[in-house]
Amino acid sequence: MGPSPTVDTVPGRPVPTVDLYDLDRALDEGVRGLMFSLNCDQVHLERRRAALEDFVRCGGRVLVNGHVHLPFLPGLAPWRAIDHHGPEDLRVTPVTAHRIWEGADFHELLFRTGVPGTPVGDELARVGVAGFYGRGYHAHVPEGGTVLNGIGPHLLPLDIVFPLGEGAVLAHAGNDLLGFSDPERSTRSLGPRLLDWLEGSAS
User: N or C: lower Cβ tally within 10 Å for the chain?
Assistant: First the structure.
């Protein structure tokens, strides 16, 4: 199918894209990390479960974004929606420190805005909309897993990481994590650090 095109999701860090239905070729070419978008075909991924599991167990790293309905890797859990009535029900709170989110203002993850400029603090809360980062959680955390960020007053598991063989899985129960790396905000380092993690150069 030819070489994979690249996307410049993080300035200066072009990332090759992979046709989901040509996943075996990417695995054969020795990729170190895979990032699955929230809209990926989970039925197809579940059919490729054995190959994906082998990839991770042999040292690969995977980021799973979105609402898991078909757990296509051991340790993944179905997504559950939160009964939310306001921003406090959707507030994102760090539970276990992790370098990917180091220095990020979690207020800027909770609220998103399409207005010009980069409002902060009370102004961001006034014009922003809560819930883009996540409106649900993982139904359970696998043995050996770690809750990185929780959602709502009960700190339900929103971002988790867990080992699988020699590799690891990072699961984010919301919109694509890379989309929150904003060069104008405190989340500017989220993207580069996420790529570092996928490449195996960061724990």
Answer: N
